[in-house]
Every structure is written in C-alpha cells, then in structure tokens.
C-alpha cells in the first residue's frame, strides 16, 4: 500500500512536468497548427541558463523569474525571426525547420556548456515529508506545477489578453477584424510556451540531471500527454500529462517485464493506442470535414 | 512520363501559385502542353544519362573513403525513395522510417552472423520482413492523419534503439554490443576492390528500385495512391480500397527502406541499437523534403544532402557543426520550401512558357 502511494505521488510529480510540456506543445499547436519538435530543446536551453546563473552565485529565488523572463523573450524571438518568415509553407517544410531549430539549440548548448552530465540543485532542498512518503522536491514540483496551471487558467479565462489569444487561435480572420493583432498573439503564445517549458526544465533537471539531450524523452511523454488529452484542448493536455506520469510509474513498478528499460516504449504504446481508439484524444474536438 | 512525377499535392500547388504568379501557372505544372512535356522530358533524360555516366565512372577516380560515402549516399537515396512513395505519392507522414531501416539492417546482420547466410540473400529477406512490418504498422496508422501520424511515427523513431536493446532479443541482437559483419569480396574474380564492388551493387539495386518506383507510380496502383493523397473521400467513392492501399503504401515504403538498411549494415560492417536513433529517421525526412516531396529523382539529391552537408558543416565549425547544419536546413526551407523538385518544376515551367511565347 505504501509502495502504491509512493508511486502515485512520484507519478503525479513527474506527471506535472509532462503536463507542462504537453500544455506548451498544445499552446503552440493551437496558435500555428504545427507541432513544435524543438519544444524540449528550448526548455533544456532555459534550464542551462538557470544553471549558469546559479553557478555565478545568483540566489535561487532570483534565478527562476530571470530565467522565465529570458525564455519568454527567446520564445517570442524564435517566432518572429524563424517561424514567421516561413508563412504557410507545407507541413513538412515546417517540420524540417523545427528539426533545424532542434539541431541548432542542441549544438549550441553542447558548445557552450559541453555534453557532460551536470547535477542540478533542487529549489526545495533535500529531505522528505510524511515519513519518507514524499520528498521535498516532489512536493515542490506538484505545488509549482499546480500554481502555474491555475495561473494560466485564470489568465486565459479572466484577462483581456487571454481572451484575445483564445480568439486569435480560434478564428484568426474574425479576431483580426475586431482589432486583435493576431501575429503578436501568436508570438505571445510562443513566449509563454517557452516560459512554461523553462519552469518544467528547472523542475525536472534535479531528477534527470542536466545535459543537452535531457528533454528528448520528457518531450515524448509531453506529446503522449497532449495526444491523450487531445491536441485541441489545453485542459485535456494537462490531464493527459498527469495520466501519463501515473501510468508510466505504476506500469514500471507493477509489471515486471516493463521495468526500467521499457518505460519509454510505454509512451509510444499510449500514443498509438489512444489515437487508434480515440483519434482526437479524450477531450479533443472532432473536426468535421465538408466533402 | 513526367506527367506522373509533376503532380503535386494541393498544398504545394497552392504554395507554387504564390511563387509563380497567376493561378494559370499551376495548371501548366500539373498538365504540361505535349510539346513542352517532350522538351522537358528530353532535358530530364539527358540529365539522367549524364548522372548515370558520372555514377559509373566515379568509383575509378575516387579514393576508397569517398566511394564509401557515395555508397552511403545511394543507400540513403533508396531509403528516401521509399519514404517518398509513402509521403510524396500517398500523402502519409512518417518521422519514424529509421525503425524500418533498423529492422532491415538487423535482419541482414542476424542472418549473416547467426546463420551464415550469404549477404546477397539477406537483401530480399530484409525487404520481405520490412514489408510485413510496415504493412502491420500501417494498419493502426490508417486511423491517423497528418500531424497525428507524424507524432506516432516520431514516437516510434525515439523508441527504436530501446526496442533493439531489450533483453529478450539479446541472444540475436547482442544488445548494446552490436554485431560486426565481414566485408564481402567482389564475386567471379571481377577486378574491383570490395568498396567498388559494394558501390556498384548499391548502384544497381538503386536503379532497379528507382525504375520499380517509377512504374509503380505510373500504374493503376500509383494512381490510386495519388488519388488517396489528393482526396481520400473522393478516392473511396470512386471504388479505391483506401485502407488496403494505404497499408500497402506503408508496406512498400518499408520494403525500400528495409533493403536500404540491409545494404547499409553490409557496407558499414557494424550495427548496434545506437546506430538507429531518431536522428536517422529525422535525417531521412530532411532528405525527402530537401529533394522534393513527390519527385522521385529528388531522393538522390536528398541522400547527397544528408550524407555530405553534415560533413561540410563539420568543416565550417567543429564545435558548432550541429548548429551550422540546422541553420543550413532552415535557410534551405526559406529559399526552396518545396525542395529541389519544386524548384526544378518551377524552372522548367518558366522555360517551357518562354519557348512557347518566344
């Protein structure tokens, strides 16, 4: 029973990270209808920036807002400089550009900070609560992701800019007619996705350790979460991310054949199974096509 | 006929409309005038023969390492050709073709290593096994479209090396250790060194593969595949068995890539799970897009791009080679979003229009 509770909590903690990545993916998908394959690398780069500032002796409480702000600017810049000039090129050209971004960011991080694995300190310190049931870091992860998700919900629900962003994603033509600057809303979406990714990266780095390839599997789980909940539903993506985290941990613990080495294929299995039985995800909208 | 290879998907057609001006220009791309078509065909044929002569003489002038690189270029070309049948002709995305390449490579390596089968026999077996695997993967893929299929296949690409590391298969795959294969000698006492022999073998297989792909695209089956790409509902209502043909496209595509993988294993003489990370799948997609989606000869140029451009990037900057390669990719997409095939098509259209008016 204690093992089950422990695994559930671990699942919820890592699931929160997947939920953040899934949400970042869905935000960009809603804005430009393309999957950002470089999302994980953007988060990784942000995490390296945070690490560098910590190494320079900047206090932790200052590092996080600084990193988030820098990531936001970086996300907007990438949209403005790299994605925008592409216009409505074919889907595959977009995918190649994302691959190019992936390569550039990965190589830059390796060049600046090299490819050795670095430990990343937790913002919440060592130790654990409730008789070892949950570590401080896990508790912090859950608290931070919950706060981020709640703030995003409030932002999209109750602010003018949030409403404008939703309108721009839902119906760009009409949004432009009522005076919303759709282009900047998309750039804002990129910035926010990058900022969410930065938080996810900082939270997961103490667990997976810091290195340029650390986010690849996290991104895959994020994709799995996004697909599980539906690429058209931000709330669904968050739910999907938590589900993926829990399933991953429980399956890894209770199905001995899976163990550690098959954890990643679970993500593949989940993606394919969900898509086969419910192609729009659990909360997704079905797109009706006129013949 | 060039008519078959010049059909584009609606998206590309829309893109080229903006690139070439009035909407009438698109019509000229998909249905060229007979005179212009034969003129273009002549240009293409001359270019093809010139390329073939270059291909036949190259191994006598190049060093062994360059021959090896050229062989790998052809192998990637064959794999991209397979991907082109799936994506360019049938309109299904795959970011996971490295998995089929890996299956082909492992089939060849295990047959040679465990059962002592001659290397030539491993190629058809790898093809058949990959056809079956691809067909089976194509069945669930029937439910997926566009970006969802891209996602599922991307997941397959990331997972592939882990699948080949699994302990139950270790007896055959030797796990992370990988399998070493010995290099075959030229048969019948041909005056060729092993590198040259493998080059010519690959070239011959590549030519056969290309001719087969062309004939497939020109056949009834090819038209069914393109009809599904352009409008699946219309194709279905005209009596095309959409499910069967989509799965078949996956199977045939995997067959090509699997044969390429088997050849790759023989040429490189060593395989391990980490030879087939998702970067391989990604490279194949990059080659496909750079060569031109839907334009079969583009596979050769795509193969050349993914073989040689990373080396060029490495020479430009050792530490930042990945960044240089990524930047080249992005710049290519700005310059020619529809790949070399799209560029060539636009150029030929402009040429034939000028010869008609002037």
UniProtKB/TrEMBL annotation, chain A:
BP GO terms, sorted: amino acid transport
Recorded topology in the membrane: Multi-pass membrane protein
CC per GO annotation: plasma membrane
InterPro entries for this protein: ABC_transp_permease, BCAA_transport_permease
One term of GO molecular function: transmembrane transporter activity
Any Pfam family hit: BPD_transp_2
Transmembrane segments: 6-28, 60-79, 91-113, 133-156, 184-209, 221-246, 266-288
Top-level taxon of origin: Bacteria
Localization: Cell membrane
Keywords, in A-Z order: Amino-acid transport, Cell membrane, Membrane, Transmembrane, Transmembrane helix, Transport
Protein family per UniProt: Belongs to the binding-protein-dependent transport system permease family. LivHM subfamily.
Protein name: Amino acid/amide ABC transporter membrane protein 1 (HAAT family)
TrEMBL record, chain B:
Places the protein is found: Cell membrane
Domain of life of the organism encoding this protein: Bacteria
Transmembrane segments: 43-61, 67-86, 118-139, 146-164, 197-217, 248-271, 283-310, 322-344
InterPro entries per UniProt: ABC_transp_permease (IPR001851), LivM-like (IPR043428)
Any GO MF annotation of the entry: branched-chain amino acid transmembrane transporter activity
Record key words, sorted: Cell membrane, Membrane, Transmembrane, Transmembrane helix
Major site of localization recorded for this protein: membrane
Membrane-protein topology: Multi-pass membrane protein
One GO location term (cellular component): plasma membrane
Protein name in the entry: Amino acid/amide ABC transporter membrane protein 2 (HAAT family)
Taxonomic path: Bacteria, Pseudomonadati, Pseudomonadota, Alphaproteobacteria, Hyphomicrobiales
């Amino acid at each position: 029973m204690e093992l089950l509770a422990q695994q559930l909590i671990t699942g919820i903690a890592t699931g929160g990270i997947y939920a953040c990545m899934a949400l970042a993916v869905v935000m960009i998908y809603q804005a430009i209808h393309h999957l950002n394959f470089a999302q994980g690398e953007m988060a990784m780069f942000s995490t390296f920036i945070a690490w560098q500032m910590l190494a320079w002796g900047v206090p932790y409480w200052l590092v996080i807002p600084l990193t988030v702000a820098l990531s936001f600017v970086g996300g907007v810049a990438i949209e403005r400089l790299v994605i925008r000039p592409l216009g409505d090129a074919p889907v595959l050209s977009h995918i190649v550009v994302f691959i190019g971004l992936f390569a550039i960011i990965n190589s830059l991080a390796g060049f600046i900070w090299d490819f050795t694995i670095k430990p990343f300190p937790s913002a919440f310190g060592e130790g654990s609560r409730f008789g070892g049931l949950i570590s401080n870091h896990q508790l912090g992860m859950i608290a931070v992701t919950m706060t981020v998700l709640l703030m995003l919900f409030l932002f999209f629900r109750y602010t003018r800019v949030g409403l404008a962003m939703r309108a721009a994603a839902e119906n760009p033509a009409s949004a432009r007619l009522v005076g919303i600057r759709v282009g900047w809303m998309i750039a804002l979406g990129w910035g926010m996705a990058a900022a969410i990714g930065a938080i996810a990266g900082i939270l997961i780095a103490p667990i997976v350790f810091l290195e340029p390839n650390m986010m690849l599997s996290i991104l895959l789980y994020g994709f799995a979460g996004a697909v599980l909940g539906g690429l058209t539903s931000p709330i669904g993506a968050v739910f999907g991310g938590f589900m993926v985290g829990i399933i991953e941990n429980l399956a890894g613990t209770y199905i001995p054949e899976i163990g550690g080495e098959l954890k990643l294929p679970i993500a593949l299995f989940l993606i394919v199974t969900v898509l086969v039985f419910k192609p729009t995800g659990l909360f997704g909208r079905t797109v009706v096509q006129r013949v | 006929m060039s008519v078959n290879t010049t059909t584009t998907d609606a998206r590309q057609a829309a893109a080229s409309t903006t690139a070439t001006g009035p909407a009438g220009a698109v019509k000229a791309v998909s249905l060229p005038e007979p005179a212009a078509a034969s003129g273009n065909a002549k240009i293409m044929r001359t270019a093809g023969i010139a390329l073939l002569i270059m291909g036949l003489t190259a191994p006598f002038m190049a060093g062994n390492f360059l021959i090896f690189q050229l062989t790998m270029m052809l192998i990637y070309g064959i794999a991209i050709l397979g991907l082109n049948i799936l994506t360019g002709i049938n309109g299904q995305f795959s970011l996971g073709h490295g998995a089929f390449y890996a299956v082909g490579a492992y089939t060849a390596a295990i047959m040679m290593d465990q059962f002592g089968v001659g290397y030539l026999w491993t190629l058809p077996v790898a093809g058949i096994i990959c056809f079956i695997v691809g067909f089976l993967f194509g069945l669930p893929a029937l439910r997926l479209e566009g970006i969802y299929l891209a996602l599922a296949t991307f997941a397959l690409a990331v997972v592939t090396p882990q699948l080949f590391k699994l302990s139950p298969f270790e007896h055959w795959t030797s796990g992370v250790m990988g399998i070493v294969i010995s290099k075959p000698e030229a048969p019948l006492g041909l005056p060729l060194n092993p590198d040259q022999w493998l080059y010519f073998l690959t070239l011959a297989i590549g030519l056969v593969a290309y001719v087969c792909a062309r004939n497939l695209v020109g056949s009834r089956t090819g038209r069914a595949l393109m009809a599904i790409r352009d409008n699946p509902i219309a194709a279905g209502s005209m009596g095309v068995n959409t499910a069967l043909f989509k799965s078949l496209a996956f199977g045939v595509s995997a067959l090509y890539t699997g044969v390429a993988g088997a050849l790759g294993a023989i040429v490189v003489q060593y395989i391990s799970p980490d030879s087939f990370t998702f970067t391989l799948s990604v490279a194949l997609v990059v080659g496909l897009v750079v060569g031109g989606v839907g334009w079969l000869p583009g596979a050769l140029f795509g193969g050349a791009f993914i073989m040689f451009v990373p080396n060029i990037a490495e020479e430009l900057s050792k530490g930042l080679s990945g960044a240089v390669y990524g930047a080249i990719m992005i710049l290519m997409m700005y310059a020619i979003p529809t790949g070399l095939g799209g560029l060539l098509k636009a150029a030929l259209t402009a040429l034939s229009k000028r010869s008609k008016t002037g």
